[in-house]
Give the backbone structure.
Amino acid sequence: MGVVTPTNKDVLAFEGLHLYHSGVSNCSQRVRIALEEKQLPWTSHHLNIFAKEHITPEYFGINPNGLVPTLVHDGKVIIESDDIIEYLDINFPEPSLRPPEGPDREIMNEWLHRATAIHLKAVKTHIYEKRVRGQMSQSAEQRAQYEKLQTNESLLEFHRKSNNDGFTQQELDEARAVLDQCFADLEKELGERDWLAGDNFSLADIAWVPLYFTMDVLAGYSFNGLDNVAAWAKRIETRPSYKTAVLDWWPEQMTPLKSETA
């Protein structure tokens, strides 16, 4: 699980649950949904990633990738949203958000892994190109600070592209193909059941509904013909956690982008 040793020792004194997050971040949405589903009290450390509030030595001293979210629980630092939501379910088991050990648990784990695996090359690439590349561009000073702090070569390469000439058409096509396949598989899975893993809402659903939301609202991705996915999203939208964890934190300036044609 993604436990790290922070160089910023201030967080070691934190008591309870503290979350570094951003309203626009789909990965942050996952963690907020899990916290709200379990009705856990938590302290917010909101970072405006458009204002580059995450590109500081202090935050990189907590999360060595400089990404959100980061959970600090009684001084223990956990990064990566899939690891965080699983950590929360293990350490705060009621109500459970994981199926019992067996085939459904394996299905849940597969969907969790898949959501993480496609994030940089597909989700982030598509969203940056369609909506936020200009807003997330770094000034020369910010770029120098980021490259000084960042040691993850994949993230460095991503931001060099997003700051300069952008992504190649091949990279964009590959990102779109990955997304299309994932949502097609989601459509098939949800034709057989209401939830992604077993008979109940689980971490698998928590991992994927933020992708649906951000791809729909932020990137204008077309879900035409994906009726099972749309019905699944509607079921989740009726849960109180959806409003408090997703809608209430969504930046007002991020208005919906017109959907692409199918």
The chain has two domains: 3-91, 103-249. The two ends are 39 Å apart (CA to CA).
